[in-house]
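Before relying on records like the one below, remember that each one covers exactly one chain. Contacts with other chains, cofactors or solvent are not represented anywhere in the record.
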Amino acid sequence: MKKTKAIHIHENGGPDVMKFEDVDLPSPGAGEVQIRHAAIGLNFIDVYFRSGVYKAPYFPLPLGKEAAGTIIEVGPGVTDFAVGDRVAYVGSDGAYSVARNIETRHLVKVPDDIPLETAASMMLKGMTAEYLLNRTFKVGPGTTLLFHAAAGGVGLIAGQWAKALGAGTVIGTAGSAEKVKLALAHGYDHVIDYSRESFADRVREITGGKGVDVVYDSIGKDTFPHSLDCLKPRGMWVTFGQSSGPIENFNLAILNQKGSLFATRPSLFAYVGTPEELRASASALFAVVQSNKVRINIHQTYPLSDAGRAHTDLETRKTSGTTLLIP
């Protein structure tokens, strides 16, 4: 029986509830492999489970849903992966660890020309951008869109990818002059500093009063209902996160009042629920990165043992773009 280090929470709370612990690591079981992580992605969903916004299925809960590394041991019955394979995954709890066992249904092989650190930084964020732009609302030539948190990890990928898909006008929001500049360098035609002006008024100005076809909103409480005021009649509001807190007392009648709008609350895991869907989404992501139409830049790294500070910085909006934890 090997030992490894991993972060667990034994209760919900602030960053201080995360414990960097010694844990047993048995040999992988049937259908599993053992991975040594090279890098681990930091995402807001980790904060949601730590804080209790999303209910933990059990305690102690291993945190983290995204990482990349190298297979170091293969369990019984595994034929499609081998020791030495470079792999990445998203969706399986336990990424905040030095090494772990994982079922192969969660894994994708990483192309040789994509560094493992890059893979770890883009799986959840990049595949989120993939399903949002390609499947929730299909962006194409002539699409006008608004993407909140344009300087965040998903936002920086989405701005570039939307332009690669031929979107006509790509508008973003960000919370500082520095983040506005960053987003403008990643595909956005216009970026609105919401700390200085009304984003809804500015969107109407940019679009000549027409509004946008779709709003992608991961902010939640702070951007509602103003996101709806940015939409054309019959436009779509895609609310896929709640970094500022959940939207409460949502009245469906508001969609009628503001122009027969559509609304959806998607999540990545409903779009990559099968191995086939997962690998198709990852393949699309790898292809757009390999084409250089989407650049993945890692903006911050923290030691895994310092994940508490990383969570604090993420929650207080001190980070931009992509953040990695390094075991």
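The chain has a mean pLDDT of 95.
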